[in-house]
Every structure is written in structure tokens, then in C-alpha cells.
Design brief:
It is a single chain. The protein has three domains: 7-165, Aconitase, domain 3; 167-239 and 269-286, 3-Layer(aba) Sandwich (Aconitase, Domain 2), CATH 3.40.1060; 290-466, 2-Layer Sandwich (Aconitase, domain 3), CATH 3.30.499. The protein is 32% helix and 16% strand. It contains 16 helices and 19 strands. Strand 4, helix 3 and strand 5 (99-100) form a beta-alpha-beta unit. Helix 2 packs across helix 5 (149-158), helix 13 (354-364) crosses helix 15 and helix 13 (354-364) packs parallel to helix 16. Residues 8-458 form the Aconitase/3-isopropylmalate dehydratase large subunit alpha/beta/alpha domain. Pathway: Amino-acid biosynthesis; L-leucine biosynthesis; L-leucine from 3-methyl-2-oxobutanoate: step 2/4. Pfam families: Aconitase.
């Protein structure tokens, strides 16, 4: 018998039933809920006269629609659609008795930042949310992925999910990262290499020395974008850093329960003789600070490169590249570090954690922004409070950044923080699709340090030039 991967182990531990055609019923440990994908699911329960099966394992927080400026609890400061969604979550959380962090609560924030912060996300768990970036929680050695609204209803009603097992893929990042290279550069480089469909049908386990060396924050950044590479989920084996991060969190186990949990968590790694359906290896030393130039997360290049020509691609990609270049208003051959930007957005569930803010502050200290608009949006109220305590907020404000309240903000155009048509943005989020940050807006994805560097020079910039 061959050994098991980490994914196999978590899967087996949660398998409630397997039908003959391979369709399985998985037990779900944590169900995270936000205001966009849950209203119809709760309505379904109401109509069927059902309760939430495990309200204690169900955690809700509004994040996508909420404004990030003061006075945001006033519905007048939201569009009608946004106000309806947030009000529905308020009511559903109350009616169904689930854990809830409303905008008035300092613990409110982006659902994928709040879950780990509060100790809801723990190693070996199954974690789902009606949101594709649920992959973030895989950083803890949890099997975590997005689900659709009908599945949200299914999980609310039964605490189980119907699934088919994915294949196992290993992405190994060997060696050390060079100075100026971060978790974001790792995850973008992987997608640049494998493409947005490279992970389709797989759960990716990220491993290797460069992954081990990352903090928990960095590991969350890597797993966050597994979905952009097409994977069902991304996962990283838990280790001492993971355990240390979890210990003492409000909803982490305590005392004897902690010891028992730890004993099981220590078995959560892929066996040496486990079977991998696909393996990718990248040398950490070969990874450069990168930016995206197009409208797909796979359109990644080192900052030292030039805008590619559409005909340097093959087959159907030629047309797609041309369309990207037209939308982005870019000309082939332009050095990436000469592209001028209007706006900088630092935040999102990819890069809205304290370490991301520290990395940006290190570059911004004592400098002034050279762009029209620059904003930093902490991923949660607690990240915001911590950044204020550490003096980071002062550095940002002195540099000319707006210092906002927690939410998804300019990561996607569902709230007042949006790009105007043609506006070009250096962003630390995870999607650069057409219109993602506002109709006609142009997004370049990068790390927080790179976004901070761009803010200072007013163009895409190699952060290593400022170090
Ligand atoms: C609104 C939500 C369903 C969506 C997702 O699933 O990812 C959003 O969070 C995003 O990042 O595009
Ligand atoms: S921050 Fe962006 S990617 Fe993350 S959940 Fe919000 S909208 Fe989705």
C-alpha cells in the first residue's frame, strides 16, 4: 500500500459516505459565510422551515460590500444592493444564531483574514465558504475551498458537502528566496508557469524550503491564489509555525484539548511514498519580483522584463494577448518599469495582513507618494489596530496614503472603492480581470513591497532599486 498525501489524510478523516460512482459526502468543520453568496441559501432554509445544523461551526462577516470609510454602518453610504445584502446578513446571523462579526465589531474584516485570526481555521479541518479564495485557509493544513450558493444552503442544513475527490499535485519551491522576493512573487510565478488551468482537477500541496521559510501570513498569500491557478484548493503541511500561530487564538482548543489536537496535527504531512499525479518544481533562487501586464493572473513577468508582443504567444493565446494589451493600453516592447500608474491599492485577502503592511511601511518610511490616489486597507479591524499600535498607520498617512477601515475594498468593484475607466492601478489583490476594480480600470498585480515602491515613483518599479 502506498502512503497518503496530506490531502488524502484530511479527506479520509472527513469522509461520511462514498457512493459507487465516487461521489462522496464530506463532513465540514467550519463554514464561513459572507453577505454576497448567502442570502438565497438562508432564504432556502427559511422556506423549508429548517435550522442551521451546526450554528457553532458557522461564522459570518460582511466584507465585500461594506464601505471602508467612517460612517459605513449607515446604509445611506452604500448602494441599495449592498445595503440589502448587508442587512440580510445581519438578520440571518441573528435569526439562525450563528457567530457574527458586524461592521461595528473591531474583529470584522475580510472573511479569509478573520477566520484564521479568530482561531476558527485550524490544521486538519475541512473549511468551506461561498467564496473562491477560501483556498487561503489551506495555509494551516486545512482542506479549504469555495462552494456555490446552493452548496452553502446544503452545508447550512446538513454540515456536509457532496464532493468528488481531486487529484494530488505537488508544487515544490526549493532553496531560498532572494531579497525583495516575497510569497506573492512565489504564487504569481507558479501561475505564470502552470497557467490558470494548470491546477484544474487538483488539490495543490505547496512544499519545499522556500515555503517552510514563509511565515503563516506568507503561506496564506500563496494558498490564496491556488484558485487562480485553477486548483480546487491549495494546502501546506502544518508545522511549529502553524501551531504557534494557532495557540491562544479565541476559538483554538485549550488545555488537554489542545494537546489532543496537537497530537493529530503532527500526523498531517504527506508520506514519503505518497502518490502524486503531477509535480512542479521551481528554484526559489530563480524567482524575481514580478508584476502582471495583462488581464489574467497568468500574465506574469519579472519587473525587469518588457511588455510582450501578442505574436510571441501561440495559438488562441495570440488573440487573448492582443485583447489584454488593448484593454491595458500597453505597447509591446515597453519596459514594465516605465509603465506609469495613477493609483495604488494595498489590501485584500491576498495581502491585507499585518506582515504585508509592515513590508509596505518599510519601503514607504519617510517617503511621499507620487500617484493620484493611494490607499491601504487592512484586512481586519484587528490588523488595523495592530498597525496603528506599531506606528505603521502614521508612516502611511505621512507618505500620503489613505488609511481605511477593513473590507474587500478595491479588490473588486462591489463597494464605493473603485477605479475610473482607464485608471491604472498597482494592486496587491489577486485578480486583474477586465473591470475587476471598476469598469475600464486597469490592474497590475504585485506584492505589497512592489506596490509601495510603485507608489513612490509613480510607475511600476523594481523594489530592489529602493532597498
Ligand atoms: C463575491 C465572491 C463570490 C467572489 C469569489 O468567489 O471569489 C469574490 O470574493 C472574488 O474575489 O471575486
Ligand atoms: S478581498 Fe477580494 S479576493 Fe478576497 S474575498 Fe474579498 S473580493 Fe474576494
Amino acid at each position: 500500500m502506498t502512503g497518503k498525501t496530506l490531502y488524502d489524510k484530511i479527506w479520509d478523516a472527513h469522509l461520511a459516505h462514498e457512493a459507487e460512482d465516487g461521489t462522496c459526502l464530506l463532513y465540514i468543520d467550519r463554514h464561513l459565510v459572507h453577505e454576497v453568496t448567502s442570502p438565497q441559501a438562508f432564504e432556502g432554509l427559511r422556506m423549508a422551515g429548517r435550522k442551521v445544523h451546526a450554528p457553532d461551526k458557522t461564522i459570518a462577516v460582511p466584507d465585500h460590500n461594506v464601505p471602508t470609510t467612517e460612517g459605513r454602518d449607515d446604509p445611506k453610504n452604500m448602494t441599495e444592493d449592498s445595503a440589502i445584502q448587508v442587512a440580510a446578513l445581519d438578520k440571518n446571523a441573528k435569526d439562525f444564531g450563528i457567530h457574527y462579526y458586524p461592521v461595528s465589531d473591531v474583529r470584522q474584516g475580510i472573511v479569509h483574514i478573520v477566520g484564521p485570526e479568530q482561531g476558527w481555521t485550524l490544521p486538519g479541518m475541512t473549511v468551506v465558504c461561498g467564496d473562491s479564495h477560501t483556498a487561503t485557509h489551506g495555509a494551516f493544513g486545512a482542506l479549504a475551498h469555495g462552494i456555490g450558493t446552493s452548496e452553502v444552503e446544503h452545508v447550512l442544513a446538513t454540515q456536509t458537502l457532496i464532493q468528488k475527490k481531486s487529484k494530488n499535485m505537488k508544487v515544490e519551491i526549493t532553496g531560498k528566496l532572494a531579497p525583495g522576493v516575497t510569497a506573492k512573487d512565489i504564487t504569481l510565478t507558479v501561475i505564470g508557469e502552470t497557467g490558470t488551468a494548470g491546477g484544474t482537477g487538483y488539490v495543490i500541496e505547496y512544499c519545499g524550503e522556500a515555503i517552510r521559510d514563509l511565515s503563516m501570513e506568507g503561506r496564506m498569500t500563496v494558498c490564496n491564489m491556488a484558485i487562480e491557478g485553477g486548483a480546487r484548493a491549495g494546502i501546506i503541511a502544518p508545522d511549529e509555525k502553524t501551531f504557534e500561530y494557532c495557540m491562544g487564538r479565541p476559538h483554538a482548543p485549550k488545555g488537554a484539548q489542545w494537546e489532543a489536537a496537537l497530537a493529530w496535527w503532527k500526523t498531517l504531512y504527506s508520506d514519503d511514498d505518497a502518490h502524486w499525479d503531477k509535480v512542479i518544481t521551481i528554484r526559489g533562487e530563480d524567482i524575481a519580483p514580478v508584476v502582471t501586464w495583462g488581464t489574467s493572473p497568468e500574465d506574469v513577468l519579472p519587473i525587469t522584463a518588457v511588455v510582450p508582443a501578442a505574436d510571441s504567444f501561440e495559438g488562441g493565446k495570440v488573440g487573448a494577448a492582443q485583447r489584454s494589451l488593448d484593454y491595458m493600453g500597453l505597447t509591446a516592447g515597453t519596459p514594465l518599469n516605465e509603465i506609469e500608474i495613477d493609483t495604488v491599492f494595498i489590501g485584500s485577502c491576498t495581502n491585507g495582513r499585518i506582515e504585508d503592511l509592515r513590508a509596505a511601511a518599510e519601503i514607504l518610511k519617510g517617503k511621499k507618494v507620487a500617484v493620484k490616489r493611494a490607499m491601504i486597507v487592512p484586512g481586519s479591524g484587528l490588523v488595523r489596530a495592530q498597525a496603528e499600535e506599531e506606528g505603521l498607520a502614521d508612516i502611511f498617512k505621512e507618505a500620503g496614503f489613505e488609511w481605511r477601515l477593513a473590507g474587500c475594498s478595491m479588490c473588486l468593484a462591489m463597494n464605493p472603492d473603485q477605479l475610473a475607466p482607464g485608471e491604472r492601478c498597482a494592486a496587491t489583490s489577486n485578480r486583474n480581470f477586465e473591470g475587476r476594480q471598476g469598469r475600464g480600470g486597469r490592474t497590475h498585480l504585485m506584492s505589497p513591497a512592489m506596490a509601495a515602491a510603485a507608489a513612490i515613483t509613480g510607475r511600476l518599479t523594481d523594489v530592489r532599486d529602493l532597498m
